[in-house]
Amino acid sequence: MTVQLGEIAPDFEADTTEGRIRFHDYIEGSWAMMVSHPKDFTPVCTTELGSMAVKKPEFDKRGVKMIGISVDSVDDHLRWKQDIKDVSGSEVSYPMIGDKDLTVAKLYGMIHPNASGNASTRTAADNATVRNVYIIGPDKRIKMTMTYPMSTGRNFDEILRVIDSLQLTATKSVATPANWKQGEDAIILGSVSDDAAKEKFPQGWKVVKPYLRVVKLS
Prior knowledge:
Layout: E1 13-16, E2 19-22, H1 23-27, E3 31-37, H2 43-61, E4 64-70, H3 74-88, E5 96-98, H4 103-107, E6 132-136, E7 142-147, H5 156-169, E8 174-175, E9 186-188, H6 194-200, E10 206-209, E11 212-215
């Protein structure tokens, strides 16, 4: 089964381009983003990993550790890194997990549990479902999942927007509306009474509907 929002991210040990890791130790105390790929040396994934490399400073500013995973060996990843740099102009400076026996893909429910064979004998089409993004909180719980088709590159600006929302709503009694961006007005949670809201938001708020109270946070 696929992992669900709010669950503890399954732990695992794996070899990466930065050495062997235990995933929970890697996350320890931080936000994390894991991005999965069905095969090395594939065109869309090459642009995605390059985009991650370019935008790494933005993830660093938010305290988010990045990690990639692809259904191929670490040796393949190390060779792929040069292509990614050639395409994006940026060095891949985050770990890339080798998952040549599909262990992590199966653990997270990204691929059919009966899938078999070594990565070297499988095509990208065989691994087509391994196109996930997971955002994981410092509590090691899954905060967001996205699954993309192979033909559509991921939008890392959108992923950063979601992280901004997650980090805001983790510390404030608010949610964020459609198309929200950092610095814009938020929504006071329905579970917060008006009396409690007066304590939390002394600056006041706008009542759009009795259940929709908009507050400016900055």
